[in-house]
Amino acid sequence: MQQSIEQLANLGVQKLVPYQAGKPVSELQRELGLTKIVKLASNENPLGPSPKVSAAIKKEIPELSRYPDGNAFDLKAALAKKYTVSEQQITLGNGSNEILELLARAFLNPETEVIFSQHAFAVYPIVTQSVGAIAKVIPAINYGHDLDGMLAAITEKTKLIFIANPNNPTGTYLSEAELSQFLSKVPEHIITVLDEAYFEYVAETDYPNSVPWLKQFPNLVITRTFSKAYGLAGLRVGYSLSSTAMADLLNRVRQPFNNNALALVAAEAALADADYLAETIRLNDAGMVQLKAAFSELDLAWIDSVGNFISVDLAREAASINTALLHKGVIVRPVANYEMPNHLRISIGTEAENAFFIEALKEVLVNV
Ligand SMILES: *Cc1c(COP(=O)(O)O)cnc(C)c1O
After folding, report:
1. What pLDDT shows up at residue 120?
2. Is the full-model pTM beyond 0.90?
3. Residues in the chain with pLDDT < 50?
4. Mind listing the pLDDT tens digit for each residue in 196-219?
């Protein structure tokens, strides 16, 4: 009998279901031959990159025959200054997703358990399973994380806890008080990963300023990214802030040149462009109001979100509505794989993009 290649893989990998990304615009164009397509599916920044980023990339082009700075001196210095941490507390990743993977590689094995919430970001189960660790998924409360439930799930095998704040795709968040209490109850030998991919968007006054917690909790890892508010999803730059001991371990498993040279200069330029960030947030806040008003008008419920996306409840299976939207040139994100079959997640776009989506949704809801 012929050897099955699949059976050669580690058990966790055999059972792995690949991450479902938002459909690329070019793919829908190929499939349906549409001329106008609006993509509100991957929580990308609708402004496009900052002009300062484009200039920095152009300037770097003559250096492309050289390896990038493997220690990212300039970008780390800029981040250290901005967040009042030392460079030794920073680990850079090829997107913050890579940091999640580094954590799995450094700390997990088939004898360890990982705790995260139902409806939480899909990369947590993937990195957990890829190293054969055991996922403990804690039922959500009103789509949000049940921190007491997560604490109660801790066993002597627990190694790591993933918390998305705010969470994607629900947009729910945890307050400073809730999280600081939680962290003080997590045993020291368990690592808490606080995924703050949407940190820059959150204006709620009780949203935590988590960085000072690093002094108190050497087992805390905060992850952030340039993919969302800084508009660099295509370049792949994310980072973690942690204790220096933790960063040292993550940097041991990291590939030496995991951030390319263009990404490094682009991230530095993006970090310095306060006007771009302010415009991003203004646009997002306005778009959130615009979408909620449309949902109200259509009698649709939604989950309140503090991110750059919102999940709307269609009160019926969302799959056929999603297909109909695709035929109208609108790409949004079905979230059935997050156990939310009746919801669609909409990334906030420009005013015109949001309006295009709203118009399509109105037509589709009547006809499908
Ligand atoms: C988008 C997202 C990320 C970041 O992904 P990158 O790899 O940095 O592009 C991380 N966590 C959550 C919850 C996200 O939604």
Report:
1. 98
2. yes
3. none
4. 999 999 999 999 999 999 999 999
- Give residue 33's pLDDT: 86
Mutate to test the pocket of ligand 1, among 225, 239, 258 (most ligand atoms within 8 A of CB): 225
pLDDT at 1: 58
At CA 197, angle to CA 138 and CA 260, rounded to 5? 125
Q: pLDDT, tens digit, for every residue of 298-314?
A: 999 999 999 999 999 99
Supply the DSSP string of 159-206, one letter for each residue.
Answer: EEEEEESS-TTT-----HHHHHHHHHHS-TTSEEEEE-TTGGG---TT
Q: Tokens representing 133?
A: 């660790």
Give residues (CB < 6 A) around ligand 1.
Answer: 43, 95-97, 121, 164, 168, 195, 197, 225, 227-228, 233, 238
Closest residue to atom 10 of ligand 1, CA basis? 197
- Domains belonging to the chain, first-starting first, are 5-48+275-367 (3.90.1150.10), 53-273 (3.40.640.10)
Which atom belonging to ligand 1 lies closest to the Cα atom of 227? 9
| φ, ψ at 284 (rounded to 5°) | -65, -45
User: CA–CA separation, 276 vs 282, rounded Å?
Assistant: 10
Atom 2 in ligand 1: residue holding the nearest Cα? 197
CA of 119 to the centre of ligand 1 (A): 15
Please report the atom of ligand 1 found closest to the CA of residue 42: 1
The pLDDT, as a whole number, for residue 29 is 87
CA 255, 260, 263, 264 dihedral sign is positive
| CA of 104 relative to ligand 1 center, distance in Å | 16
| Per-residue model confidence (pLDDT) at position 32 | 87
In the prediction, which pLDDT does 359 show? 98
CA distance 258 to 241: 17
